[in-house]
Every structure is written in structure tokens, then in C-alpha cells.
Amino acid sequence: MRQTFDETTDPSFGAKHLPLVRAAMAEQGLDGFLVPHEDEHQNEYLPAANDRLGWLTGFTGSAGAGVVLTDRAAVFADGRYTVQVRAQVDAGQFEILDLVDGGVPAYLERLPRGAVIGYDARLHSPDALATLKTAAAKAGASLRPVDRNPVDTAWGEARPAQPAAPVVAHEDRYAGESSAAKRARIGEAIARAGAEACLLTAPSSIAWLFNVRGGDVIRSPLPLAQAIVAANGTAMLFLDPAKVTNALPAWLGDDVTLMSPDELPQALEGMKGVRVLVDPAQSSAWYFDRLALVGATVVRGMDPCALPRAAKNPVEIEGSRQAHIRDGAALVRFLHWVDTVAQVELPDERQVVEALERFREATGALQDLSFDTIAGVGPNAALPHYKPVTRTIRRMKPGSLLLVDGGGQYLDGTTDVTRTMAIGEPSADQRRMFTLVLKGHIAMATVRFPAGTTGHQLDALARLPMWMAGLDYDHGTGHGVGSYLGVHEGPQRIAKLVNTQPLLTGMILSNEPGYYREGHWGIRIETLQVVTPPEDVPGGERPMHGFEQLTFAPLDRRLIDVDLLTPGERAYVDAYHAETLAKVGPLLDDEVRSWLEGQCSPL
Fold this sequence. Notes:
- By secondary structure, the protein is an alpha+beta fold.
- The strands form 8 sheets. A 6-stranded mixed beta sheet has the order 4-3-2-1-5-6, sandwiched between helices. Strands 12-11-10-8-13-14 form a 6-stranded mixed beta sheet, with helices on both faces. Strands 15-18-19 form a 3-stranded antiparallel beta sheet.
- Strand 10 (226-230) and strand 11 form a beta hairpin.
């Protein structure tokens, strides 16, 4: 099995590791040290060697931060991880604080006057660092960059080795465009930005631009690397020689020079007098400082690969369609298993995860999971980012709800889907809540919107049915998804948080409203959908974008209160189920197809 259920950290980490970090701080004359979750590539999901926050505190969420002072320490997590952080972190060693409400800046504003707080410039974006410096200055304290990260020093030889997965070609039949053509386009974008070269550090951009894939980041086919791309389309790619396969140099071509990461500082020194485009949201402060030191002119701007990568080309969109139909067949087989075998045997969450993985493996095309599967029963389903581990696993029981959120990595696309299923007969309350979530989901699936609309402007549509009932959920409604890349991809998203990036044709986003009753059960419905080109609306005056559904798997009919749906909403569910049957049905054996026909019959 790809997914494991062992915990890699525990609350004892704080008591074991804080003294070591404080000793390393003292050697450098520091009164404190900042420990962000992010690594040198600003990754959300980290290689084990880069999970400094997890090693220090025990907390393994995908967003967080820590601050270590000589006499106290704090760990910060957002609302998604309120329960998890308290289970994983020793509150006797760390004060547990909210990452969003005040967060690290508010903590720094209370520092003792004269305190010197260290930071590793490789791990902080320049904009975030500027905010932290301002906060420390309010207290009369200061931030100082370090050459040796105290956490790395304390970790010592026990620290895992950096990943070195082989980097392989991602063929044009999947990418839809050659790397040479992409580099020519990106070169033109660099020139339009007023630069002569661009520094890339985001693994997803490097994978996309050079049409390569790796395996350095868990559940994502990404290589850790850096690149300098010139406006003429030539490039230097800084890649650990251990990752370079025999076929890679020929695949990259003569216009791409392979170099070791050890050669990057020298290459940056050669940028004196050169205008270099760098994205302050993707590249760390270390690069900005280094370029300024050698006399380069830093041009701040968005990573020029971000939007071309996010707005999928026709080949990538068709690949995603096929990946979702293939994955949909595996998911339907799983849902049939839940509705037949599991309803009788009442397996535990681990067995549920393993069953879904087996069905995906049986496609013969699965490269990896797109993230560790979330399978929550009862109270565990009320934790939006719950991951089953041995200590927390629950068994299904009648009257509970099972929430399963998982996805696959395929050469032609990345999937991510959530379905909620009743175990036994659902209560009227469960059916009402599921149907309110469904109404919001349908609103987001069917919306039409003009060019220039952002996900932030659409977010309320998915929440409105719940708002009208005095309810809400504390996560975004949708995130971007890559094409055999990361399951979380920017810059597009659908959320309350303000986002100025308009939704563009070809962008793939999730649609996943939910409801979570703490201590009881949780509900989420998630599909992926792609932004369609603007089209005229009958009787309208302006062309409108919309969404095409990519995910096809039936909803649990037992959880739908048909009386709460409008005629239009009922028609949508019937049409969606009919399309699911038409696209996925031919891939199924007679027994499962017969079951799917029943699930997809009109409401």
C-alpha cells in the first residue's frame, strides 16, 4: 500500500528537541528563532528532510509556524488544524496560537526590547519577512539572518537525506506543448516584464516548463530544482546530479544547460547588471538578498509560468477528462463496495482507505495518490483535514456518515474527489445538512460569470444555502489543480480570502462546500471542474464563462432530501447522474454497472 497509518511525530518532540535548538541558538547569540512550515521551495507538502516544524513541535499540518525563544515557545496553526495541533503538540512546551488571527506578527510585537531573533532567509518570502521585521521593530527587537539554521544544527545526523528521485521526461502527448515552445513563450513574457532573465524556484513551474516530472515531494511528481531562464528561451537548470537520468540531457536539448545546485551561487554572481525577474510569492528572501548583493537589478513580478501552467491547453484538458473517467470507474467500484460489503462488515477507516487504493491501483495507470486519502467516520469526518492514523482510527457503525476524500496521479491528469455516504439509514438532520451542501455545490457548478471574475467573487454562491440556515464552513470552496502536478495549484482559488486573479479558460478548480458538526459527523461534496471559454447566453448581452464538470461519481441518494431542492436543482442532479452513467458505465462489469444504473436513476 502507498499510504501508511503510522505517526511520524509525537508530542514528546518538543521536550526532546527544544533544548537542542536553544543550544544552537545560544551559539549564535540569538534570543529566538523563527521556524516556518515552508521549505526552501515554499512547498506546501514537504519532503521529510525539510519538515523542520514537524521535527521541532510534532505538528504535521500543511500550514503553520513556530517561534522559539530562550524561555518559551509557540506554535501557530489555522482553524483547519485546531484539533490536530492540540493532539500532536505538547502544550506544556509550546503555547498554541492561531495562525490567522494575529499570528506570528502579533507574537513578535510582544518581544522583549533588544531581543535578536534569527531567521533562515531561504525559508521566508521577502514580503512575509518584511511584515515580521516591522512587527519585531514595534517591540524594539530585531530580526537577523543566520548562515546556519539552528534547527538543522540540532537535527544533526538524524535528519533524513534530501530526496533524489530520478527526473524523467513528461511526453508532449500529455503536455500538449514542447518545452522549447514553452521556453520561447516564457522568454517573451520575461521581456515584457522588463527583464532579461528569470529565476524560477517553484518545483511545479520547473516541472511544467521543462516537461519533466520527479518524485521529491510527497504525492506530487515534482523535482526540487532551480532554473535561470533567459529572455531568448535558453536556460540553466540546477538539478542534483543524482536525479539526472541517462535520457534527460537529450530530452532537455542543447538550449538547456544542466548544472549542480552547488553552482547556483556562482551563477547568480554572474547576473551583475542583469535585470532578473523574481516572484516574491514563490522565491525566498535569500535569492533577493543574493541578487542585490551581486549587483543585479531585481524585477519583482509573478512567476511567468504560473498562468500558462494554470490555464490548461486542450491536450491537458482532454487528458484530465480521460483521467477522471478512469478514476471515476475506480471510485464507482469503491462506492459499490461501500454500499454492499462495507454496509454489512462495517470496516474501519484503514480498511476503507486500502479498499479505495486497491480500486485505483487496478486501473493499471495510477502513478501515485494525489494526497493521502481522508477517510473519516463519525466524529473524525468532522475534521476537514483528518488523516487516519493507528491511534485515531474508527470503525463504521450504523447511523454514522463516512466521508472519503482522495485522488490519483495519472500521466494524463490529477484527480481529487470527495463523497459522503450514509452507513445504515441517515437521520432527517443528516439529510437536511447534506442537501444544503449539495445546493451550494450545484450553485457553483452551474454559475455563469463574465471575464475578469475572481474566485473570491464567486465563493458566496456555494455558502448561501448554508448562510441562510445560520451555518458555514471554515475552509475554501475551491483550489486549483495541476495537470499531473500538485493537487493544490495557484494562483486561482475560490475562497473568502480576497484573490485578485481572474478565473481563466482552462483553469481547473475544485468545488467542495461542506458542513462539519464537531464531535458528531461531517459532510463534503467535491468535484473538479474546468473553466470554459466565454459563450453567448440566449437573450444576454455579454459572453459568459462557465464550468465543465470533470469528476463523475454518483451522490448518495439516501442523503438527498428532494423536497429541499428546486426543480432546476433536481434537473441538475439527474443530468449529472445521467452523464456519470454514460461516461463511466462502459468501464464497469455487469454487477457494478447495474448498481450504478440504480444510483443514477432520476430523483
